[in-house]
Amino acid sequence: MSAEHDEQEGLRARSEQAIGELAQALLDSQVLENALAAAFGAREKALEAQQAAMGALDLPSAGDVERLERRLRSVSRRLEEVEDQIDQVVRDVGELRRELNAAGAGRDRLQVKD
User: Fold this and answer.
1) Predicted local confidence at residue 46, as pLDDT
2) Same domain? 47 vs 8
3) Are residues 68 and 21 in the same domain?
4) In terms of domains, do 42 and 79 share one?
5) CB-side exposure of 59: number of CA atoms within 13 Å?
6) Are 32 and 26 in contact (CB under 8 A)?
7) Does residue 17 sit in the same domain as residue 44?
8) Of 3, 33, 42, 105, which residue is the least packed, with the fewest Cβ within 10 Å?
9) Is the pLDDT of residue 112 over 60?
10) Domain check: are 104 and 70 in the same one?
11) Is the same domain home to 65 and 55?
C-alpha cells in the first residue's frame, strides 16, 4: 500500500511540475501575448462597431437604458413623496372642516338660545 501511495504522490508531484512549467511557458510566450492583444483589440473594435451600428439605427445603448431606468426610479420616488404630501394636506383639510363645522354648530346653538 505504501509503495502505491508513494507512486501516486510522485505522479502528482510530476504532474504539478509539468503544469507549472506549461503555465510558465505560456506566460513567457510572445505568441500567446500577441494573440491575447489581438483578441482584446478585436473585442474593442467589435464594441465600437456595435455602438456605431446602434447609433446609426437610432437605438439606445445599454448605458442609455440604465440612465433612463435610474431617472424613472428617481421620478417614481419623488412622485410617491408628492402623493404622501397630498394625502397629508387632505387629512389636514378634513380636520379643519370638522373643526369649522363644530365651531359653526356651536354658534348656531348660541344663536338659537338668544
Assistant:
1) 94
2) yes
3) no
4) no
5) 8
6) yes
7) yes
8) 3
9) no
10) yes
11) no
> Which residue range(s) make up the domain with 78?
61-114
Q: What is the mean pLDDT of the chain?
A: 88
DSSP state of 50: H
Cα–Cα separations (whole angstroms), residue 69 to 16, 86, 100 = 50, 26, 46
Number of helices (H) and strands (E) in the chain: give both, helices first: 3, 0
Q: Using 50, 70 and 90 to split pLDDT, how confident is the model at 92?
A: very high
Do the beta carbons of residue 33 and residue 40 sit within 8 Å?
no
pTM of the model: 0.46
Render pLDDT for 9-30 as a digit per residue (tens, 0 to 9). 888 999 999 999 998 888 888 8
Nearest to 87 by CA among 79, 75, 76: 79
Percentages helix, strand, coil for the chain (3-state, rounded to 5) are 95, 0, 5
pLDDT of residue 40: 92
Q: Are residues 50 and 5 in the same domain?
A: yes
